[in-house]
Specification:
Blueprint lengths: L1 E5 L11 H13 L6 E7 L6 H4 L3 E10 L2 E12 L2 E7 L1 H4 L10 H15 L9 E5 L5 H10 L9 E6 L7 E2 L3 H4 L8 H4 E2 L2 E3 H8 L2 E4 L2 H6 L3 H4 L3 H6 L4 E3 L27 H13 L16
Parallel strand pairs: 1-2, 1-6, 2-5, 6-7, 7-11, 11-12
Antiparallel strand pairs: 3-4, 4-5, 8-10, 9-10
Amino acid sequence: MNILYISSEAQPFIASGGLADVAGSLPKALNKLSDVECHVVLPLYSDIKPEMREKITYVTNFLVDVSWRKQYCGLFKAEADGVTYYFLDNEYYFSRPGLYGYYDDAERFAFFSRGVLEMLRYLPWKPDILHANDWQSALVPVYYDSIYKYQPEYAGMKTIFTIHNIAYQGKYGKELLREVWGIPESMNGVMEYDQCVNLMKAAIQLSYKVTTVSPTYAQEILDPWYAHGLDRILRDYQFKLCGILNGIDTDLHNPETDTGIAAQYSVRAMAGKKKDKLDLLQEVGLPADYRYRQPSGRP
């Protein structure tokens, strides 16, 4: 089974949160299975760690349709921890500080999502599963279902969509459907939700399977309190929803060898753990005797 893991960030190249940890550790674990080959694709940000950028090499380039525009896309490649990583390059979109929070994020990640599918034409390797993650790659199932699945070289692929943080859904105005994303008009009903366009909603509806980062979270997001408005569509498609508990990379997150913490410790020598806690409290400006208290009025 060939899996293409599509992520807007991934360790050990660039990270802003938990998505990068999963994108860095899950493919590595999957590749240890005898019948699985998992590759990863992400944008070629200018902020990729310098020591990792040295490992990245050029493969080819092609054009990507972003609605009525055609944009250059460079394809790059690197190997890390037994995993093949692909990078999609466009300096206009990704040569900026940071990863997210720009006025044109809708266009940047539409380019990335469409570019992922176009990239497959230039690879000797073809995925059986396209695994998209969070709103930044939620357009992959949309583009696949509306444009690519009818083309012979793309036939038979399945799409999976994983929700890491349901609070960020990719909500935009309807005017972006054709002007920015180039989505066929026949898809309007899939894209629209609560008087706007919701990319996560569309991915939930169109993906073959929807997963979350834990079985508990899969149940929580069926409740309006936690779902940020998506509980209705999730209940409609509950038959394809499941939660798979995130694991951790025990090589990367090993307090015995981690040089990013103040002191190392192990189950046999725990003294360093207290020092690490005090160091963390000091870093975030809290007193050494701080104790967390659950806020009143919360479930």
